[in-house]
Amino acid sequence: MLELLRNPLYTESHVVKDSAHRQKYLKGLEMHRARFHVVIEELDEVQLDADIPLEELSLVRPVAGRILSAMHEEYGKLIQTLNPVDALARIIDGPVKIRFDVDPAELGEVPAHVPRDVASFGLQSIQISRTVNAAADKVENYVQQRQNAEEQEINEKLDTQNAAGSLDSLPTDSLRKLAHFHAQLYTSSQQPEDLDSAIGHLEAFLQRAPPDDPNASALVSLIQLHDTKYADFRDPLDLHRIIHYSEMALQDTNTSEKDLTSILPKLSSAARLSFQQTSDMTYLDKASNAIKLAIELSPSKMDPTLPYALSMTLKTRYQATGEVKNLDISAQMMEHALSLCRRSGDEFTAIQMSVNYALILRLRFLRTHVVDDIDRALVLCQHALNFFTEPLERLSVLNNLALILDARYEATDDADNINSAIEYAEEALGILMSMEGGDNLDAGRAAILVNLANSLSRRFSLTQDPSDIDQAIEYGTQAMAFATPASQGPQTSDLSGLFRTRYQYSKQPEDLDSAILHAAEALEHIPDSHPLRPLALLQLASCWLEQEDQSTIEDAIACLKEAFDCTNASPGDRISAAQLAAKHLVHRQRLDEAASLLESAVGLMPELGMKWSSSKERQQSVALCNGLPANAAMVALENGLDPSRVLKILELGRGIILGSMMYYRAEVDTANDPEIEELIRAFNHARMRVDDAEPGHKRRGLIEEMEGALDAIRAQPGYEDFLALPSAEDLMRLAKDGPVVVVLTSELVDPGVAIVITPSKIFTVRLTKLLHEEASQRMQDMAGNILNLAEGAWNQRNQEMFKLLKWLWEVAVQPICGPDGLDILHEGRDLIRLRWVGVGVISKAPFHIAGNYGLRTPNDRIGKYAVSSYAPSLRALLYANDRKPKQYLHRKVDARILLTKIPEAEGAHPLENVDKEIKAILKVAGSVPLDAFVLDSPEGKEIIHQLPLYNIVHFACHAVADPTDPSESHLMLASGRLTVGDILKAHAAEPDIAFLSACSTAETQNMKLLDESIHIASSFLMVGFKHVVGTLWEAPDNICTKVAELFYRRLLCDEGEEWDGRWKVAEALHAATLEAQKRYAGSPLAWGPFVTFGI
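Now predict its structure.
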């Protein structure tokens, strides 16, 4: 929750000597009496039995709340720091128990202010009477006697103290008694002099006590006094003294375990707060060690505040170091604390803790971009806001809600989130401005102003309303007046960003000058080890680059390189710094530096998001690095790096999500060495458990177990590269059935390049006509216009597709296959096999049908020379290639085929040719014969259940490629859908071929996730199918039926070639599409989308 800090001058403890000060104490007693009279007046409204003994006088808890609310204005400080029961106990300061025993059945007609739900407090009985005067008189008489006695005691003790003249003249025993007396007096007077006197007397007592005298209890009391003083006045010196005296108590052998469990949480809290004010890591270490020791010493029934304190300490450590494991354990500890609170029925404390838990979830979201975390944080804070009614309690919740909604806006781009964030922050600021607290509220005011300024700036980026950015700068400037030493750097960097944002709109040089000035100043206040320093460096570098001044670009590059070298920063921030630096290094022809930075940045990509998160959540993190693998590879090639090493860079940064699944499912043989064999078995067992686990903390533990087993294997001689990225030898082995061609372009280096893998070598072909900007525009035009059924007539769009195919042939495919490449463009030569891997924007290109289809040059097309197929990545190709061939691949009669037909799906037009398609396939299968089974409009769970039982599966249905979230792409069922995520959960015993006779089953529409290649076809590859037939765009129903029939006829009935499970599938589809092309020659949109993925 929001911590309100101030830094007043420290006043040393002193002795009260004069009569004027004595009058302050007596005045405090008068205030004490006045408070009690208010209570008595309220008691008159409550029906109490006159015969109840004074010691058992009761008061219902909600009524106490009413009394306190009435007293709030005058005695707010006391009330805000205590719950209603404890506050009344301090006000009365006697043996009166603040409790009201109630049996709802006996209430009958009672005054409106006595609630009927008091049974929820677990109370059982009440005595109701018509008279209260006797009880009230008895209470007043008792209090009057007590106050008279206290006045006399005060006068006597002050006389004794003044007679002594100084602390040195007082007896040792009197020092301790006077300290206790002043501490009690402070609870009623709330005068800082009383607290200082209590501390001064106790410190004098400790200094005078013999070293061998037990003084642990005095140390405990002194720590408590300084803790109270810091809570009330926020003097950092009190934190230092808490730490000092706590360490003394820890060294004192007389300190009991009970005292230690009281001291250690205070030591931890003081050390953590000291770190936040000084950034000195030694304080943070003390905080961690203290609270861990407190947990070790705690009884079996643990106090929830202990795991809570550890959670907050680990949260602070994460903010200081950027180590994600601290944040994860912090979340776990907070969940444990909340569980303990709820188990004990303490919902109030649980909700208070949940507000801080929401902040931890927000931090984790900012690091991992897991939307579920920010959604949970929002629910927690909204619940807390509905629960709390006091302004101070609502203040921190409102501020945290604003932070959470601001972060959620970044994830969703939903304007409602940023508008709500601003509304909550403005409400919090209004509450804070209405409160009286002086310096005590300065840090809170600064935090709210900064948060409000940043949210207004984000809304300005959305609306371009200049009043938003002007107001943001005003708030940011106001916040600087309340900055603490620890917050000054980050706040100044934020203010720089506000000025830079306004400059981008206004183009006023003074705005950019202010941005640069504040960015440079921010770095002076942020330590080198602070995780926010990279953001400040990025800010200054971005400001300098805005100047477009050659003299400052070198400084900007230096800033960006320093930001990347900050290992405690988030991977996303470091990657951003590397990409921006590399862009300017390339322009300066400093390729060696750029290549090194980009390769290191690609190495960070697997750290984006959490390995145990869902695919959808990891997509959000990976999308932030769109284009990085291609940039790194192209710059590395330009710098002279060997192509085989460049391919490793690409594989490290591409297909990260599917790559992790291949990692869990790849077939690994055990070794001959018994020791290695046992390690591999343990690894395989761990992988299977990971694969079956749902995303979350359980999966995290299993992944750690699996990685530990992997490390143990790689530690063995000869197994250092076990399951590592493919080597050059692996890749050339992959090309034995035909070359593999990787095509890429980059925004940093033109022109594009093809990396060609053959059984004997890996080489590059420079594609001098393939320019990145043009390729990007062509691919966007294909997706947005040519393939969009809503755009233009069928014939017109087909003509545009022919133009695109001609361009693709001339700039890429022809040079790759020509004399400077594979040299296969010779008439009469046998067809060769080509596997295409596109990188980045060019991955959407239909290489398999590239060509010049004009009448003058009818033979200039790839289909005349090669049978093409695709792979999401080289690892995916190896994954399919290395799966053990089954016996049935050589004996067609052993194969079993599952045919799934769904002619009608909810929300889609009927497919008229589905039944015809299934009948045609059944006829072909029957002539072999093959064991065939038909599923007619099944549910998703039935498909998943049947999938492992068949070698070949065929789907005739509708499909949808999700435009934003590829993992939600799906086959449309009669009711419901079968998503990529559903398919990936399936397992198949002997999978071979999956034919997806549906639209866009091999299409990724999200341009930021092209390198992940997440679509329906790739999901079947991950399940284990070695060949997947899919479509790159929508295909007419009748064409799907014809291509499917031709494919199976060629695959199953042609006896001309041996069935080998590799060449035959791709060749069968190639022949089927060529036949379709003859029938629909002028319509490449009709016969062109069909492709094979895999080996």
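Residues 836 and 870 are 5 Å apart (CA to CA).
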